[in-house]
Amino acid sequence: xxxxxxxxxxxxxxxxxxxxxxxxxxxxxxxxxxxxxxxxxxxxxxxxxxxxxxxxxxxxxxxxxxxxxxxxxxxxxxxxxxxxxxxxxxxxxxxxxxxxxxxxxxxxxxxxxxxxxxxxxxxxxxxxxxxxxxxxxxxxxxxxxxxxxxxxxxxxxxxxxxxxxxxxxxxxxxxxxxxxxxxxxxxxxxxxxxxxxxxxxxxxxxxxxxxxxxxxxxxxxxxxxxxxxxxxxxxxxxxxxxxxxxxxxxxxxxxxxxxxxxxxxxxxxxxxxxxxxxxxxxxxxxxxxxxxxxxxxxxxxxxxxxxxxxxxxxxxxxxxxxxxxxxxxxxxxxxxxxxxxxxxxxxxxxxxxxxxxxxxxxxxxxxxxxxxxxxxxxxxxxxxxxxxxxxxxxxxxxxxxxxxxxxxxxxxxxxxxxxxxxxxxxxxxxxxxxxxxxxxxxxxxxxxxxxxxxxxxxxxxxxxxxxxxxxxxxxxxxxxxxxxxxxxxxxxxxxxxxxxxxxxxxxxxxxxxxxxxxxxxxxxxxxxxxxxxxxxxxxxxxxxxxxxxxxxxxxxxxxxxxxxxxxxxxxxxxxxxxxxxxxxxxxxxxxxxxxxxxxxxxxx
Length: 604
What we know:
There is one protein chain. With 604 residues, this protein is an alpha/beta fold. Among the domains are: 44-87 and 167-355, 3-Layer(aba) Sandwich (Rossmann fold); 362-503 and 548-589, 3-Layer(aba) Sandwich (Rossmann fold), CATH 3.40.50. 49% of the residues lie in helices and 13% in strands. The chain has helices at 33-36, 44-53, 61-85, 89-111, 115-135, 144-161, 184-194, 207-226, 231-234, 237-240, 246-264, 267-272, 299-314, 337-350, 362-368, 382-399, 430-434, 440-449, 466-481, 523-530, 548-564, 568-572, 574-577, 579-584, 588-591, and strands spanning 2-7, 173-178, 201-206, 287-292, 318-323, 351-356, 376-377, 404-409, 415-422, 425-429, 452-458, 485-490, 597-602. The longest helix has 25 residues, at 61-85. The N and C termini lie close together (6 Å). The model is unreliable at 1-29, 31-38, 131-142, 228-232, 278-282, 501-546 and 586-604 (pLDDT under 50). Keywords: ATP-binding, Coiled coil, Nucleotide-binding.
């Protein structure tokens, strides 16, 4: 007989009794959550040492080394913020655009001045005939004239306004890597909380959310470019207001469209420029990007990360990131090697690479020494299922509402139906969330909208159902990242949930996670097929195939997080960290569940 414990008093502060062995204390979850909302958080080193002194963390020399490096970076950021306040990039861009329009109007006036326009056309025809004669039957490359005009115009702008101002030298960021459960995210979040009030522009993204944000921005730019419009609607308002005839306006509009086409060939830098700070809106100051779980899971990730991160680093953004692997080891399958190596070189140039070398998974240690084993019911027999249903009824009663189906908005204009929902509590089957073509965007929508999620009928996963396993890992990542409370009914224990095989690699169907039914949503598929960002063309197929070793690496991370999500320390943070409560500003009295402990026995 084996006794498994569960507890539904997750959100009731003070009802959770932390019975943890002092010898093994958690160093990976977020026990400092009370400090995250503080406007003046102490530095990461002070936060770390204080938690060790309080007995909430076990001292780890690797973690302290990282905390010290983050503390030093924080000190350099104050001066860097002042320097970036004086970096007038937006003013330069505004002046350059003003001069560019003046040049265009001068060209338009010259080229469309009555009989001169005719003579210019005649002269062009004569030159074209002579050129054609010299080239004989060779074809002239289309667009060459516009390209030359564009380059000449840019050269004139360089002399009138100057080249793009060089940003003040940024302090080196940090790339923190190490085993699952070693405390990487905890340390990065300590640093992020301490930057409040020091750095004006700061963002924290998990890998999946960042990739979706990049893809969404790319799609918007691409859709605006390829969308068919009438001449009237396609001509910018500044052109329509000019006192030129329509022929001159059409010429100006054509030059504008050509400039946009040139920019679309460099779409990633354009996305990067608005990723953290809209410099064109006149925003000044330093920018910090905290990036959790950098991965190189497929061609799109490699191309997008290389383009976006390289641009951000080159323009002065300070990067603090975490990963399970050293930069050079991210791309185990050798996809787009040339692009990847440039990305690694950029990381190593702008970041200190630092290892959290502990072999200890602190999440597992705290869970093994907690009195309660919470919210995970197994196997799928009568007793476990009965207790799972009992927990569902208890939580719903405490939520004080009617269980109905609900629809939540997803990125790219899609929606996802939630079969059972009640005041921030949702219930799904495993197949509903992981057996259909859904992905990170859907899971983020679920996680943001629901503080408590029930998932039933979770099977044992292997490479045989790899697509479902990958989706489940992504789902756990997002529920964990948004600090959701999770209840599960599963076929086996957490440690036995993922069972790798030697069956070889399978297509990674998670690569379809960005595919939607919206108009023109083929960018991700094109990237996977071609290794670059294109504006069109038929997809050649999926080339993203991860090794079994990579899959097992992700499995271990998911297991570690599932274990942590049952610990009292994690559950204490749900009310203060989950966006549902932050968004709704619900009082603790209305949101918390009553304290109760449910026990059930499972026969082996």
